Amino acid sequence: MRRHGGEALKTTLDTLRAMKVAKKPGVWVSCYTTPDAAIVAAAGVDAIVVGDSLALTLLGHDSTLPATMEMMELFISATRRGLTANIPLVIGDMPLGSYQPSERDAVINACRLIQAGADLVKLEGCMLGRITALAEAGIGVVAHLGLQPQMKALVGGWKVQGKTADEARRLRQDIVRVILAGAVVVLLEAVPSEVAAWISRTVVSVPLYGIGCGPHVDGQLLVMSDLIGEFRQFKSRFAKRFGNVGEAKEKAVGDFVAAVRGSTFPDTETSYAMDKEELAKLE
Ligand code: KIV
């Protein structure tokens, strides 16, 4: 656990900036619940993204689009309650419909996520007016570019972005524009490594994190249920499994079923016993 003089160590935006300067790779994880937040924090991650991916990986939808403000508030506050000793930054994802309608909506809804426990908010796309309005309201914005799952219909599904030289140039231009508009961190999703490396080399004013963008960025994000091997509906190329929790859970529940059916559970060790005298009276 990362502690400083007995005190809990809290990651801030300045921590991410300092890590960038020191070339220390940052680690982010998308997760949503109190127990997962505690585990992820104890493992030493720098930021938790309470992402709208929860609609897909936790709530059984087939995309991130059904995520609502109420869901995000619920899971951001649950995440915050899991953070006690070692406290990563909490990045609250703005769900579809919470910032697209107007700058006013963006500010009102970002304030709700901050009140639920987020330190920064994340929104998809080159939404310069929204980013500036949030920056003016004193809210730090992580701009999510590259593959933007909320716009998957427009970009042709979950597809790698910036594959041609023209697309790569446009992407870099968008990154410069969101930074000028006030974004404090950029998150890139599903971009060829060479393009991410080129952008990272030439755009240096804010930390640049990646998911599915290769190693040459300031830090990496993975989704908890991907990295522990729990989400098994599909697997993106970049979603490396560092564990197999899905199989472990299935085995544990299977063993429980077998034990009950085979009458080996519960046994005396896992049952309460009545005082013998009381039992005699009862009988
Ligand atoms: O919703 C999320 O967790 C995200 C990341 C996967 C980029 O936006």
Helical coverage, percent range = 25-40%
End-to-end separation in angstroms reads: 55 Å
Largest sheet: 8 strands, parallel, barrel
Uncertain runs: 1-5
Largest sheet strand order: 3-4-5-6-7-8-9-10
Task: Outline the structure in words.
- Helices cover 40% and strands 15% of the residues.
- The chain has 283 residues and is of the alpha/beta class.
- Strands 3-4-5-6-7-8-9-10 form an eight-stranded parallel barrel, surrounded by six helices. Strands 1-2 form a two-stranded antiparallel sheet.
- β8, α8 and β9 (208-211) form a beta-alpha-beta unit.
- The relative contact order is 0.11.
- Residues 1-5 have low confidence and may be disordered.
- The structure holds 3-methyl-2-oxobutanoic acid.
Features:
283 residues; 8-stranded parallel barrel; binds 3-methyl-2-oxobutanoic acid; 40% helix; 11 helices; alpha/beta; single chain; two-stranded antiparallel ribbon
Question: Topology, please?
Answer:
Blueprint: E1 3-4, E2 7-8, H1 13-21, E3 26-30, H2 34-42, E4 47-50, H3 54-57, H4 69-81, E5 89-93, H5 103-116, E6 120-124, H6 128-136, E7 141-146, H7 165-181, E8 185-189, H8 193-202, E9 208-211, E10 219-223, H9 224-227, H10 245-261, H11 276-282
Parallel strand pairs: 3-4, 3-10, 4-5, 5-6, 6-7, 7-8, 8-9, 9-10
Antiparallel strand pairs: 1-2
Helix pairs in contact: 2-4, 4-5, 5-6
Can you describe this structure in just a few lines?
This protein has 283 residues and is of the alpha/beta class. The chain has helices at residues 13-21, 34-42, 54-57, 69-81, 103-116, 128-136, 165-181, 193-202, 224-227, 245-261, 276-282; strands at 3-4, 7-8, 26-30, 47-50, 89-93, 120-124, 141-146, 185-189, 208-211, 219-223. It starts with a strand and ends with a helix.
